[in-house]
Amino acid sequence: MNRRRAIGVGAGSGWALTGAAGGRPSAASELKVSVVLPGLYGLDGTLAHPPTLRNAGYGLRFVVVVENVSPAAVYVWAEGNSEGHGTLSFEVAAGRAASTVRRVEKEWSKNVVRLERLAPGGLHARVVAYDPPAGAPREWEGWPFGAKDSRVEVTLRAVFEQAKAGAGGKVMPWAGRVVSPEYKVTLLNA
């Protein structure tokens, strides 16, 4: 269990927003999160194949981009340690059913906690390997793929969230929650 799970961050659901205090912009306005899910278009500009996530065992993935939209540098937890491992999740809705997709928890035999600096306008990319190759362990849990050979139309939103950290270093990691716009996606269980 990592520190974030132990203190209960991300255990609840809802739409928490970080408000402005003392004239400082809210934490949510410092970062922007986007999901890169390309659709395929014909030469006439019509959508030929909408964005689709396939559960096929081919090692498929997509990218989530976190952008610093503030005028100052922002520090986010690097992904390859216990602090950054669970900072990205997804809210998936299919009709009235909703679920949360999260990284599978992992034990850290070697855990070098570190930050990444995002300069103003800087980008932080996370590769989401949602479809592991046959025989490889799953990195994500909770994708609501339907039965074999089914297609499920869903609305997907990426959530990037970091808890407030103790003052243990010279720089303070960004703390807050930002949510991407909604994306219409097809989940195909191939």
Question: Overview of this structure, please?
Answer:
This protein is mostly beta strands and 190 residues long. It has one domain. Helices cover 4% and strands 41% of the residues. It contains 2 helices and 14 strands. It has helices at 3-6, 82-85; strands at 31-36, 40-41, 47-49, 52-54, 60-68, 74-77, 88-94, 97-103, 115-118, 123-131, 140-141, 151-162, 176-179, 183-188. Strands 4, 7, 8, 11, 12, 13 and 14 form a 7-stranded mixed sheet that branches. Strands 1-5-10 form a 3-stranded antiparallel sheet, with no helix packed on it. A hairpin with a 5-residue loop joins strand 2 (40-41) and strand 3. The longest helix is centred in the N-terminal third of the chain and has 4 residues, at 3-6. The radius of gyration is 18 Å and the shape is globular. The model is unreliable at 1-25 (pLDDT under 50).
Helical content (DSSP H or I, runs of 4+): under 10%
Low-confidence stretches: 1-25
Can you tell me the overall shape? globular
Number of domains: 1
Pattern of helices and strands: HEEEEEEHEEEEEEEE
Q: How many alpha or pi helices? A: 2
- Sheet of most strands: 7 strands, mixed
Strand % is 35-45%
Helix and strand content put the structural class at: mainly beta
